[in-house]
Design brief:
CATH architecture of one domain: 3-Layer(aba) Sandwich
Number of helices: 10
CATH topology of one domain: Rossmann fold
Shape: globular
Structural class: alpha/beta
Order of helices and strands: HEHEHHHEHHEHHEH
Strand content: 5-15%
Distance between the termini: 22 Å
InterPro entries: P-loop_NTPase
Strand order of the largest sheet: 2-3-1-4-5
Largest sheet: 5 strands, parallel
Protein name: 2-phosphoglycerate kinase
CATH class of one domain: Alpha Beta
Pfam family, one: AAA_18
């Protein structure tokens, strides 16, 4: 590679990534954040750079499919008496979405394949508990979910075995990332997003209420910075730099787990 003009840093990175893929270390990258913070764009760009698959349709499928476990009305369009009530319902929906991800996560654990998952309904606390080997709320029976098929139980057992390190394969790397945006920029994008989604005109008060609920969820997600979750500022003007930083950050994570 040196003869072809590649530098030392590039060669070392190539060797490290080759070892990483050969060791088949399960890798789950979570791109969290509320609406209009660039989750889909960041996840897609990272997936292309790192040659990884990404998943982002689980919530919509759970909300819109036949006998869907989530209500068809998004959480930010429903009424809540308090912010605490909103966050409680948000966390409940996040646990349901986590169940919907069982197939992708079990495959990643079993096959040692990396995956990027992005979406609003990714509660870092669920995945932090799983990474630390503690019982996750997702393993507790939800309303109407006390009975599971053998396939579901087997899949969850395999996932827990890998997460708890009882299987022979390397322990999974779970990397939650929360994207954050300056208040002014975020509000402008949210206003445009709400206008594009609304089938009929809404009042200024209704729009303000929607934005408050979305910002409340965002504040909850960014609160996990104190627990070691990376909160990454992003804006339209610094997007390339943010992508470069995330790319470099993930490469450092890979290097720390490659023997």
């Amino acid at each position: 590679m040196e003869r072809r003009g590649y530098g030392t840093d590039y060669i070392n990175r190539y060797k490290m990534m080759t070892r990483f893929h050969h060791q088949r270390i399960p890798l789950i990258i979570l791109v969290c954040g509320t609406a209009c913070v660039g989750k889909s764009t960041i996840a897609t760009q990272l997936a292309q750079r790192l040659n990884l698959p990404n998943t982002d349709m689980v919530y919509e499928l759970l909300r819109s499919s036949t006998e869907a476990p989530l209500t068809s009305t998004p959480i930010w369009e429903r009424h809540f008496e308090t912010k605490e009530e909103l966050i409680t319902e948000f966390c409940r929906e996040c646990r349901i979405v986590r169940k919907g991800l069982d197939g992708d996560l079990t495959k990643a654990m079993k096959d040692g394949k990396p995956v990027i998952i992005e979406g609003i309904h990714l509660d870092p606390s669920i995945y932090l508990m799983e990474e630390n080997g503690r019982a996750s709320p997702v393993n507790k029976a939800e309303d109407g979910d006390s009975e599971k098929s053998p396939a579901q139980c087997d899949g969850k057992q395999q996932l827990n075995e890998h997460e708890n390190g009882s299987a022979a394969k390397p322990k999974a790397i779970i990397v939650p990332i929360v994207l954050s945006m300056a208040d002014i920029d975020h509000q402008m994008l949210l206003e445009e997003w709400i206008a594009s989604r609304s089938e009929s005109s809404i009042t200024e008060e209704e729009e303000a209420a929607l934005i408050v609920k979305l910002r409340t969820i965002q504040d909850y997600l960014t609160s996990f910075e104190s627990q070691g979750v990376g909160v990454v500022p992003i804006s339209a003007t610094t997007f390339p730099q943010t992508l470069d930083w995330l790319h470099g950050y993930l490469l450092q994570v890979f290097a720390a787990h490659v023997s």
